[in-house]
Design a protein that fits this description.
This protein is α+β, with helices and mostly antiparallel strands. The chain is 23% helix and 41% strand.
């Protein structure tokens, strides 16, 4: 029985790890290529994204992470500091103690953080005309602000690409929201991965605001991840213990 339980936990960890890997691949990536965008709004977005990438280097943000496995009735919460180094690498430092079930801590939250540090640059899944077809879906106006909503359709069925929407601020070209479902999951144990990435404008720069992700697995049930970002500040020099890689 002990050996069977151990194998069950390892299999569950593998499935959840794949699920969180899918979450990491989806949405924003900070790698851009030299493809020409025929639509001027798309070209503006690509230029703005490069500015965004540079502006976020050397900054830090407090991040609140809530995760749950409804089928197992397990939850967890952790606060971390997200630090973007000058060269673009991302690290996380824990702030305070983890609260909740250890399965959620090790198999969901820590796997997410470990994979985030490994996949900061990946041109093959970046939101560019090389990887996606852009179709202007609608325009939204609120006061003096105008938002363009593009429908994104991947040009190939590959892990990390998604079908969904991209919201762009008309004035700056900065991304405001990315949402959709992955067109291909990285594991046969995953049925569906849906996500929403939201941003807010700070001094003309789009910064992370919230991530919501729902992953349907074939064995462990659904995994829910909700992440809220604080205000970006210049990264401090004080050394803190880093989050250990997930087992």
């Amino acid at each position: 029985m002990v050996r069977l339980r151990t194998l069950e936990l390892r299999l569950r960890g593998l499935i959840l790890g794949s699920a969180i890997l899918a979450t990491v691949f989806a949405g924003s990536t900070w790698a851009f290529d030299s493809s020409e965008a025929t639509n001027p709004l798309v070209a503006k977005f690509l230029d703005a994204s490069k500015i965004q990438q540079e502006a976020l280097r050397g900054t830090q943000m407090e991040v609140d992470i809530d995760a749950q496995l409804p089928k197992l009735k397990e939850t967890g919460r952790m606060k971390v500091m997200r630090i973007v180094k000058r060269l673009g690498a991302i690290t996380y430092h824990r702030l305070g103690e983890f609260v909740g079930d250890r399965t959620v801590q090790h198999e969901v939250i820590e796997r997410y953080l470990a994979l985030q540090t490994e996949n900061t640059d990946n041109p093959s899944i970046a939101i560019t005309p090389d990887n996606y077809k852009f179709r202007l879906k609608t325009r939204m106006t609120e006061g003096d602000s105008r938002t363009y909503v593009f429908e994104l359709t991947p040009k190939k069925k590959a892990v990390g690409l998604f079908k969904g929407e991209l919201w762009i601020d008309a004035a700056t070209g900065m991304p405001l929201r990315e949402s959709g479902t992955l067109v291909k999951t990285p594991s046969i144990f995953l049925k569906k991965v849906a996500f929403v990435n939201e941003f807010k404008l700070e001094n003309g720069i789009s910064v992370p605001s919230r991530i919501e992700c729902h992953v349907d697995t074939r064995i462990a049930g659904r995994a829910d991840l909700n992440i809220h970002f604080g205000e970006p500040t210049p990264a401090g020099e004080e050394k803190q213990p880093e989050i250990a890689d997930a087992p």
